[in-house]
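Supplementary Text 2. Reproducibility record for the structural model of the 158-residue chain.

All settings were left at their defaults, and a single model was retained for analysis rather than an ensemble. We include the record here because the model underlies the residue-level annotations in Supplementary Table 4.
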Amino acid sequence: MLDSLTRLARAYNLTISPTGRTLSGGLDPGALIQPKKFFGAARNIEEGGSLTILATALIETGSRMDDVIFEEFKGTGNMEVHLDRKLQERRIFPAIDINKSGTRREDLLLTNEEYNAVMAVRRVLATETTQEATEKLIHALLKTKNNKEFVQMFPKLI
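Retained model, structure tokens:
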């Protein structure tokens, strides 16, 4: 677990020998080399097992450098979980922005029935505010014992 890729890239930006180029926000492109190597180490390992890296990134901080760092890593992960400060302030947990969060290639991880249910949930919740969507999903999940039951009951729950 790495908290955070943003801070790691900022630290490298302060310590590397300058490359002579500067990206928006004052970021030297050379500062991204080692963080990208670290994050890119996640993979399946031959003869079994895998290395999973869970990393955070700072966004909406008002820093252009943080935005540039986030954009450099945005498409490289297999999933994104966006936390929502307003949900956290309202004590709604988990404080996850459901509409911005997701897993790439869900179709490879889920059965057809599960995938279709996920897509239906996303369509229904996309029209709601973040708070309404989160509360609605939590309420629906609490009515079921497990994912299989949720998938079967979803049309009646929401």
